């Protein structure tokens, strides 16, 4: 389950993000909140952050840097919602202008499909993005309406239902194979990470 164990999933620290970045986690979150006015989208970005951190632990990568990529990946959404060809590009250029590390900016740009996904961070962010939506939808249709009561098996069963949360691209989620992870483990890590911040997600 990674070097830090399950208890670390979804619990970001508040230190510096890492080399090549002048943003710490709180500064990044404040910046996101200044750019994004939709509370549901902010919760999505928090969910992606948590899952990215958990997967970084699992894959032996830098959780702070991967978490930052998840936290800011949709920061330009309000600005580009009517022009999807600019989504990701605007956010990446904004981050570059702020001195954020190029690998993080590139992951933000590549998650929207504008440039090839080359790094492990690029590929992970692309697969995680729809996974969080699937897990939220599963929680909302669960009898308890509580993320804490959702199991990995429950999410996998919903995954098999093509009409359920149709916007959560199954093919994109299955690219977890490029990370060396089976679908079940990928879903399990994502679910545990989101359960770790369930109060922030309102679930």
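-> sequence recovered:
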């Amino acid at each position: 389950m990674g070097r830090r164990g399950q208890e670390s999933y979804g619990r970001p620290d508040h230190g510096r993000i890492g080399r090549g970045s002048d943003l710490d986690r709180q500064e990044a979150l404040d910046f996101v909140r200044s750019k994004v006015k939709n509370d549901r989208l902010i919760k999505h970005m928090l969910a992606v952050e948590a899952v990215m951190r958990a997967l970084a632990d699992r894959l032996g990568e830098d959780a702070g840097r991967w978490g930052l990529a998840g936290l800011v990946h949709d920061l330009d959404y309000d600005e580009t919602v009517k022009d999807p060809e600019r989504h990701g590009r605007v956010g990446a250029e904004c981050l570059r202008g702020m001195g954020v590390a190029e690998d993080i900016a590139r992951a933000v740009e590549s998650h929207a499909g504008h440039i090839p996904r080359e790094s492990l961070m690029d590929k992970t962010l692309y697969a995680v993005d729809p996974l969080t939506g699937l897990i939220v939808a599963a929680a909302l249709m669960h009898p308890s309406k509580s993320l804490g009561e959702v199991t990995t098996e429950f999410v996998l069963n919903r995954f098999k239902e093509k009409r359920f949360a149709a916007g959560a691209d199954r093919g994109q989620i299955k690219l977890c194979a490029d990370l060396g992870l089976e679908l079940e483990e990928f879903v399990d890590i994502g679910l545990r990470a989101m359960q770790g911040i369930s109060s922030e997600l309102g679930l």
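The first helix runs from residue 25 to 35.
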